[in-house]
Each structure stands twice: as structure tokens, then as C-alpha cells.
Amino acid sequence: MTVILLFGTLFVCLLIGVPIAISLGVSALVAIYFGSTLPLDIITQKAFTSLDSFPLLAIPFFMLSGILMGKGGVSKRLLDLATTMVGWMTGGLSMVTIVACMFFAAISGSGPATVAAIGGFMIPAMVARKYDGGFAAAISASAGSIGVIIPPSIPFVLYGVIGSVSVGSLFLAGIIPGLLIGSGLMITSYIISKKQGYKPEQVKVFDFKSVWKATYDAKWALLIPVIILGGIYGGIFSPTEAAVVAVVYSLIIGKFVYKELSWQSIFESFLEAVVINATTMIIIGLSVSFAYFMTLEQIPNDISAFLTEFSTNPVIILLAINILLLIVGMFIDTISALVVLTPILLPIVIGVGIDPIHFGVILVANLAIGFITPPLGVNLFVASSVGKVKFESIVSAIVPFLVSMIICLLVITYVPALSLWLPGLFK
Asked: Which stretches are transmembrane (predicted)?
């Protein structure tokens, strides 16, 4: 009865358009009131106490550093570098968009931030050169989802905190899968560009001199992931402290080196980060209350028992989990899904011998696909907004890229070495 109340209320709330954070809180409230003897104030208590976490501080600081980098001239220099590297290929601007998103992913940690920073430049540029608007926005939306896989990654921080898994190891584990997904998107883009007759952006084939010059111009931007990962693995600072270092570095580079950050834009960046983080923390707090109530009612244990009775084969278990996560990602945002599902699914996969670091990559890669699947599809809305492209045209153009990402997801799922090789190397 409690399970029906909990998930039934959640489903009804989502169906009528109630915001996800409120839906989770109301679901827990209804289930406690009608199906439990627990005090109602346990919801607010857990929501507040769950936010009293030092590792969670990394989330707002990574958000802020990504915003500062977007406004401080970092995006432009990364685009210039990407152009010299892949602009000579068929569909040059689409290739530039994907590579630039991969670069920006390594400094922002956020999918929507990556789409806004790179798509804001690239979608209008592609449309001006006769690319289909839906294709241009679909490229930016799908490539932007890599922002949560290539480190630093806000979802990896959250998963690490909830699952007691090393955030540093998760950061390393995301590098190769992120590059794999980026490569898959580039192959898909090349095939479509060849068919549509989209020309290279520049006539000159790969030129080492030009690449070296663009790399030198972007050196301060490219140093950011080196500082973050190097500092963490050198034992100089923790992931949370690395996020603070990223903010300070972004301020210095944007204000005093590139000189594109004004005091007004710095103020606007802080304000934007505060607003986004307030929303995120409300979602995290109420998601934890929801997950805590599930744990008290032993719902994760029941689901785990059901799945293990169904099959103990890791291949089947992972396939079932992937299907579940792809469906969940269509309706629930990444943060809520991570907080609710990690306590349920992590014990199951550990029980069948799957490494928690590998599973973290599978989980985040699945939910990254949720960024481009309607009806939620956050990246689709961001790309539509910054590129001024109709949402419907993006949805029809996103299908080949969605298929490409799902294929990459299956490779990541069943080839654990892709995720575990780098963390193992640094142990």
C-alpha cells in the first residue's frame, strides 16, 4: 500500500506538471501520512540535513566556474582551437561544435551550460552557412550532454557522495567514455553532412602550425582540467577544493588575462549561479527525503530481491537497468534520478559483481541521454532558446544522434575496461 501511495502520487504529480522537487516531497508526504507512523517533519529534517555536506559544495562552485568561463572568453578560444583541428572535415562546423563541446565539458561539468556556451555561438553560425536549423541545434544539444561525462562532472560528484565512491576515480573513469560518445557523434554528423552536402569550414587540411597557434592562444583555458585533475590526484586538494580553485582561476583568467569579464558580468555570473544552485539544492534535499523514506520502508530491498529473482546474470541485469534508466531520464531530471535511484540500484549491481565506479559511469551516461529525450530533454530546450530554432525541428533531427549515443552506452556498459582502466592506472 505504501509503495502504491508513494509512486502513484509521484506519477500523478508529474502527469499534471508539478515541478519534480515538489512532486518528490508531496509523494513522500502522502505516503508517510496515509501509510506510515513516521512524523511528517522527517521530510524537512532530511531535506535540510542532507545539504550539510562538504562534498556537495563542489556543485555550486563548478556551476559558477562554468558560467564565468562562458562569459570570460574561454568559449571563443576553445572554438578557435576546435576549428583548426576539425574545421577541414566534411560538415566542418558540426565537427567544430562537437569538439568544442568536449573541450568545454572538461571545464564546466554541466550539460545545459555546455549547450548554452557553445551552442550560442555555433547554432547561428551553422544556420548562416545554410545548415538545417534543426540539425545545428540537435548537434549542440547532443554534444552538450557530454558535459556531465567528461570530468569535472556535477553528477559524478553527487553519485560519489551518495554511493560513498571516490569522486576522483569517477572523474578519471569518465574520460574515455566521454571521448567515445564524442567520436560516435562525429561519425554520425559526418554521415549526415556527407548526405546533405555540408562543406568543410576551411579549405586547408589539418595544419600543425595553425593548431599549435590556436592551442597556444587557448593555453589558459586548456590548463583548467589539468589543474583540477592534477591537483586531486597529486593530493593537493579535494574535489570540492578543486571546484573553488576553478572559480578563482576562472576569475583571474577572465578578468586579468583575457580581459573579457567586467565587474557587471562577474556580478551577473554569481547571481546566475545562486539562482541555479538554489533550484538544484531544493531538488537534492527533497530527493533525499524521498529516497530516505524508501529506504525505511525497505523498498530498495524489495526491488533488489525482485531483480535478482528475475536473473543473476550481470548482462541481463545491466540491460534491464539501462532500459529503466533511459525511461526515467525522459521524465525525471538527472539530479533527482541520481539521488532516488543510486540507493536502489547500487546494492544490486555490487551484488552481481559490477564495480561501483563502472556503474557510476553507466548511470551518468544513461541520464546524459535524458538531456536529449523529450518530454524533459533539457538540452533540447536550451538549444532551441539560444539558437532560436523550433523545438519540433530539433526533436526530428536528434534521432540519429540519440541512436549513436545509445550504441556508445551499450559499449560502455559491456566493456568495463573503458571506464576502469584510467582509475586502475592511478591507484
From this structure: 7-34, 54-74, 86-105, 111-128, 135-158, 170-192, 218-236, 270-294, 314-332, 337-354, 360-382, 394-417
